[in-house]
């Protein structure tokens, strides 16, 4: 039998693959932050398994895959995971649509933090298209949550 850590790692690996998978040019600015959604789910579902360290490693791998400044995504994903895991009992009690709004706020924090750090370290400029994934993440969250919960329950990940 495959262990819980391996099954969680497979979902994170799949999210990393989706993060770099090619998309049509006109949909590229709407690309959901799959790794953010998956980390947020595991942080509220199993905070004792997925923690800030897991998020930092995933963010560091994402920095390498995207070719961005090393540590930017690692830092922001670690902060987002900390927020989720510190408040997991409260977030779990919200309805799915309320959780989607929280994911939207966290996603906005993620993108604005990413922009701010990139601007501080390089010459990045703010473009309004940077915020489209916030809307996409908010609308995708209910389905991502239900899919990951079904996966967790079916495979008895604890």
From TrEMBL:
TM annotation in the entry: 53-84, 130-148
Localization of this protein: Cell inner membrane; Cell membrane
A Pfam family per the record: MreD
Keyword Ribosomal protein: no
Keyword NADP: no
Matching InterPro entries: Cell_shape_determining_MreD, MreD_proteobac
Main location group: membrane
Keywords linked to the UniProt accession: Cell inner membrane, Cell membrane, Cell shape, Membrane, Transmembrane, Transmembrane helix
Topology of this chain in the membrane: Multi-pass membrane protein
Top-level lineage group: Bacteria
Function: Involved in formation of the rod shape of the cell. May also contribute to regulation of formation of penicillin-binding proteins.
Protein family (similarity comment): Belongs to the MreD family.
Alphabetical list of PANTHER family matching this protein: ROD SHAPE-DETERMINING PROTEIN MRED
Protein name as it appears in the record: Rod shape-determining protein MreD
Organism: Catenovulum sediminis
């Amino acid at each position: 039998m495959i262990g819980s850590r391996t099954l969680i790692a497979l979902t994170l690996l799949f999210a990393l693959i989706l993060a770099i998978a090619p998309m049509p040019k006109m949909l590229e600015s709407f690309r959901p932050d799959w790794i953010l959604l998956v980390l947020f789910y595991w942080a509220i579902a199993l905070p004792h398994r997925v923690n800030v360290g897991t998020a930092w490693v995933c963010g560091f791998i994402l920095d390498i895959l995207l070719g961005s400044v090393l540590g930017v995504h690692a830092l922001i994903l670690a902060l987002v995971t900390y927020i989720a895991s510190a408040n997991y009992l409260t977030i779990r009690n919200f309805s799915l649509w309320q959780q989607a709004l929280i994911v939207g706020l966290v996603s906005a924090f993620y993108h604005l933090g990413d922009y701010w750090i990139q601007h501080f370290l390089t010459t990045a400029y703010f473009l309004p298209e940077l915020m489209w994934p916030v809307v996409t993440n908010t609308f995708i969250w209910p389905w991502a949550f239900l899919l990951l919960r079904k996966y967790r329950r079916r495979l008895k990940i604890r």
